[in-house]
Amino acid sequence: MLNCLKSSATNDVVEADYDVVPVPLLHQIPFAIEIMLTVGLVVSGQLDTQKLRAALEELTNLDQWRKIGSRIRRVKTKVRSTTALHNWPLLTVDTNQDRFALHIPKRFSSTCPAFQWSEKDERTKTAAAAGVSPNRSASETVVFHPPLSDVVHYYRPPHFAQVLSDVLKSGDPVRRNESILSVSVVTFADATLISITLPHLFTDAVGIQNVFAAWATMTAGRPQDVPPVVGFADDILAEIDGEYDPALKPEDRARATPNLKYLIQLLPNIMEMVFAKQETRVIFLPDHVLERLKGEANAESSETKTASEVSQADIVSAIMMKVRVQSFQYPI
Q1: End-to-end CA distance of the chain, in Å?
Q2: Pairwise CA distance, residues 75 & 219, whole Å
Q3: Sites in the chain below the pLDDT cut of 50
Q4: Per CATH, which fold does 15-78+96-228 belong to?
Q5: Which of these, 186, 194, 183, lies nearest to 68 by C-alpha position?
Q6: Is the pTM of this model over 0.70?
């Protein structure tokens, strides 16, 4: 049987059992490396958890989809940086920096699972009572859920990694070899909450949405309709890398704003993050409300002969911007 660990005596990883792929530098944003992203989906009714789990196991064994069951490893890399003044080099320093790589198991098994799985039975309460969905009576309007800190345990159980260093720096070899994918299913009296957690180093919220879509397609028994994903070692910048030195490794390629200009752009946000109190909430926006606002906006734009059509995404962005502006301490 394939094991993630070489032996109980050494607990060393068997590198031959993995495909090793460097994480692109573009993904290794220093202040975001620790973030574990969690996206939840509330579905009416009580779903068959065993069928859900079996479908996810099938998905993680489907071609390149195997990479969502990767393990993340920290790799020390020597980086040479040069400080220059008007193109005249002043100082060159070699430093060891943290880089990351995906170690993708060539086969999953009971000792090397594709994901962490958690089930919780909360059928004694409704999803609304738990604070993960709006009350039916309030579903005609925009609703703010309770602070996320009060309900986050439903989406991401405490025994899941809360930040990436929980895995990378763990003294437990089993924890260090966990999959990057963690899934939680909570069954309420009237609904089922399904949540996916992945490191931000690996993906973003749109990527998790694609995982949900592929998982649903597999659950529906249509594996042939699951879309392909970018291959393990595909260079997604290959077609636009003319400005790069050909000797530069694909995983080291990135596009960035010059440091000083980037810092100036971020300064107002940094000040707010340091001095402002932040509260995270989920906002429920009824579909019919979005459609009504969309219709009103398009009617107004047609009267002013505006060419572009307003979408639901535009309406959501406008609502978020209005809420954001209302929170400013000073008028703009």
Answers
A1: 63
A2: 36
A3: 1-3, 6-14, 242, 255-258, 330-332
A4: Chloramphenicol Acetyltransferase (3.30.559)
A5: 183
A6: yes
